[in-house]
Design a protein that fits this description.
By secondary structure, this protein is an alpha/beta fold. It contains 10 helices and 14 strands.
Length: 304
Amino acid sequence: MKTAIEIKGLHKVYKGGTHALKGVDLEIKEGEFFALLGPNGSGKTTLISTMSGSVKKTEGNIKIFGKSIDEQRELTKMMIGVVPQEVHFDSFFNVNEVLNLQSGYYGIKNNQKWIDEILEKLNLHTKKFANTRALSGGMKRRLLVAKALVHKPKMIVLDEPTAGVDVELRHNLWTYIRKLNEEGLTILLTTHYLEEAETLCERTAILDQGELIKIDKTKNLIESMGDQKYLTIHFKEKNKGMPASLKKFDPKKVNEHSLSIKFAKADLQEALKAIEELPQEIIDIDMKSQTLEDVFLKLTNLKR
């Protein structure tokens, strides 16, 4: 598999002295759906901006599909499309004009056929001639995606693409993005909705305080937390104490009607038997496994 992004020894120090990136090494393969996670201020946006050429690096090397951003700046810019966090459009233009202007920035003429195709797939075709001021927040998010795709890049960077987006739109957007990935488009995702990264991304990197602290297959990261299961038991009446039968499973009070236990996967049958023997009437049970969020919190809290 060819390399889409190759970053070695990347540093970025801003004029005020903030060391935003501290020797980052990162490789993303062509065709990957890759997650870059980190707390606010971890350096994610700086890394993306450096890759795309909008922020100048202090030190290090970046190659986009084998091309150096220092030696072939214009070519590497053509290879990436960025969906930024901030939603901003010139209010004087309609949707179609915005996308044609964006095409012009990349020197692309007569791009209307591709623009119409993008609008159709993103369910924006009915707003083709609508002024950007008239768009809802979700439509503006979709227009940002359209802008990133208008020059047919080999890779897109999604920086918090579903922030403030309703559930239906989020699902529709991911259906389209998944299809693009299946067709060969390399995708780099940053998001605070960690369930999105867990569901969509084969590999995940975690950035904190400018340092890349972990990178692995998403499945491996989750499994590294162990095979602990968490089960919450909800009682009809108020729970008056911690049942002795659950002592082995480290019971914790959730509220007056609920308590939680944890156990290894191998102890599931024993835990269920202990629950069955409880004298209180149970009205519901919830069970969950370790998630990418658990990994994220553990790793980033280690540095606090």
